[in-house]
Structure formats: structure tokens, C-alpha cells
Specification:
The chain has 288 residues and is of the alpha/beta class. It contains 11 helices and 10 strands. Strands 3-4-2-5-1-6-7-8 form an 8-stranded mixed beta sheet, with helices on both faces. A two-stranded antiparallel sheet has the order 9-10. The longest helix has 17 residues. The protein binds adenosine-5'-triphosphate and magnesium ion. Magnesium ion binds next to helix 1.
Length: 288
């Protein structure tokens, strides 16, 4: 099993779309895939016609079961209508987790433990995070083998990225080997100057000062990008049907490129020889 987490502390940057599209490409290769909706708003669940306000079992049940020491009911994972693709849906109760449980011991590892045992029968797990740091994102990062950070190609999005990079640096202080990440420029509109300039900054074609990007990013920026694609926007309304998701539109094809790039990288030897410590952060900087 391989676990990819999609996270960014900024909202509306394409996290849910990224999780869905990467899952769609994985399923199209014959993999058994679990999509985990960790956002109390449940936009990922909504892709599959699941209303997070109406669920009696959901990702929240995972935390209840861990807190009570009870067994996880198997129906917590639902079929999606697409062969090979299952969903662990969100519920609005997830929004109360930080208040209720974050101070309890072991609550940061609930998802990692569930994936190690009752939910272990998948080839790949994709976790969609809420746009905030809390017990859900901590769980998603702890369970992850790889982190995908979508960043909208507009200037304000760079601030969100700095926050996310700091979070990852914090996580990596105690993690060996460090969690690798890829930053994925999204919603790219080549007709706008703001989009072109932000892509240039992200991919370091433009010098910037005092940015987290220069302070030792624990990962790398993808040299591709996901363009604005109205078909991707429509996918949300298609009821999560695989053939709708991977119609050969520019956005869907860009997600296939991203999927293949991460897969290629995964099969490369460990990046240890080129991992160097940066003075300021002590976090490894991967220079591919
Ligand atoms: N490449 C794209 N082209 C066009 N529309 C897109 C693209 N990517 C995402 N969208 C649309 O932009 C909106 C935000 O995307 P998405 O829901 O994936 O972001 P998010 O980061 O998950 O947001 P939130 O933080 O609210 O969960 C959605 O309406 C989605 O359909
Ligand atoms: Mg989302």
C-alpha cells in the first residue's frame, strides 16, 4: 500500500480535484484505491453523491472507535460506483474533532493505525485534507508516504505555501526518512500575467527574497502545471464516474503526467546522497 496525502493550509487551491484525479488515474491502471475525505465540508464525498450531513458512519467513526477502543464497522468504507474505487467519507462531526479529542494521547496516529490493519487491502490511498492545520491534517501527514501540495498560480497563494512548508518542516523534525513532497502549480491560466508570474516564481525562474522557497524546501516544485480546465470543474457534477474524470482534457492529461512523474520518482533509489542539511532549518533539502 502506498499513501499519498494532498494538503495545503490555503483553501480553494485544487486539493480535492487533485485527490480525485490522481485516484482516477490509479484506478485506470487496475489498482484498488481508497479515497479518504478528511475535510468536514465533504466536497470529496459530494463527488460521489454522499452527503456528509446524513452519514451515521464516516471518517469520524475512525476517531470514535480509536477513543473507545471499539472495532471499526466495515461499512465505514463505501463503494463509489466505479470498480476499484472506494470512499471513506467525511461527516460534519469531523469539525468537532480538534475540540473533543486533540489532547488525547495517540490521536495523531488514528488513520495510520487504521490503514495498517482494518483498512489495509488497498494498493493506494489518497487523502484529501481540510485547509487548516489540526488533528485531521496531522493524521493525514503521519499516514503519508508522500505529500502533494497543490498551489494555485496566483500571488496570494505563495503565503499559504510558506505556512504549509513550515508545517512540513515541523513534521520532518521527528520523521526519518523525512516526508518528501511535490508542490503542484494548479489553476494555471496562461492568459493572465499573475498566473505566469506566480508559475515563474514557483519554478524559480524569477528570483524572490525572504521566501520559504529559498530557505530549504523539503521537496521540490513540479516542472509541469495543471491548467484551468472547465471539464475538471464539471467532473464534480458527474457523480464520480471514472470515464468522466479521465476524458482526455488538458487538465486530466496534466494530472496523468503528475501521477506518472511521482510514480517514476518513487521507483528511483532513495534520495539520501543528494539530501543536504540546510543551516537555518536543519531540514533536508532535496536537490534532484
Ligand atoms: N484545473 C482546474 N480547472 C478548473 N477548475 C478547477 C481546477 N481545479 C479545481 N477547480 C475548481 O476550483 C474549485 C476549487 O477546487 P478544489 O475544491 O479542488 O480546491 P480545494 O483546495 O480542495 O478547496 P477547499 O480548500 O475548499 O477544500 C472547485 O470548484 C473546482 O472544481
Ligand atoms: Mg477540498
Amino acid at each position: 500500500m502506498i499513501v499519498w496525502t494532498v494538503a495545503n493550509q490555503k483553501g480553494g487551491v485544487g486539493k480535492t480535484t487533485t485527490a480525485v484525479m490522481l485516484a482516477a488515474w490509479a484506478v485506470s491502471r487496475g489498482e484498488r484505491v481508497l479515497l479518504v475525505d478528511f475535510d468536514p465540508h465533504g466536497s470529496l464525498s459530494a463527488y460521489f453523491g454522499v452527503d456528509p450531513e446524513e452519514l451515521s458512519v464516516s471518517a469520524y467513526t475512525l476517531f470514535q472507535a480509536a477513543a473507545n477502543g471499539s472495532t471499526l464497522p466495515p461499512e465505514v468504507v463505501r463503494p463509489t460506483g466505479t470498480t476499484g474505487l472506494s470512499l471513506l467519507p467525511a461527516s460534519i462531526a469531523l469539525a468537532t474533532l480538534d475540540r473533543q479529542l486533540s489532547s488525547r494521547e495517540g490521536m495523531g496516529l488514528v488513520l495510520a493505525r487504521a490503514l495498517a490493519d482494518p483498512l489495509r487491502s488497498y494498493d493506494r490511498v489518497l487523502i484529501d485534507c481540510p485547509p487548516m492545520l489540526g488533528v485531521l491534517m496531522i493524521n493525514a501527514l503521519a499516514a503519508a508516504d508522500y505529500l502533494i501540495v497543490p498551489v494555485q498560480t496566483e500571488p496570494l497563494a505563495l503565503h499559504g505555501l510558506e505556512r504549509m512548508v513550515r508545517t512540513l518542516q515541523l513534521v520532518n523534525r521527528t520523521r526519518r526518512p523525512p516526508l518528501s513532497c511535490v508542490i503542484v502549480p494548479t489553476l494555471y491560466d496562461r492568459r493572465t500575467r499573475a498566473s505566469r508570474e506566480t508559475l515563474g516564481i514557483l519554478q524559480s525562474k524569477t528570483p524572490i527574497s525572504a521566501s520559504a522557497l529559498q530557505q530549504g524546501l523539503p521537496g521540490r516544485v513540479w516542472e509541469g502545471m495543471i491548467p484551468v480546465d472547465t471539464q475538471l470543474r464539471e467532473v464534480g457534477r458527474s457523480g464520480g464516474l471514472l470515464n468522466q474524470m479521465i476524458r482526455p482534457s488538458p487538465g486530466a492529461l496534466a494530472y496523468r503526467e503528475l501521477f506518472e512523474m511521482i510514480e517514476r520518482e518513487r521507483h528511483l533509489p532513495a534520495p539520501a546522497p543528494s539530501l543536504r542539511k540546510t543551516e537555518e532549518t536543519g531540514v533536508g533539502r532535496w536537490t534532484p
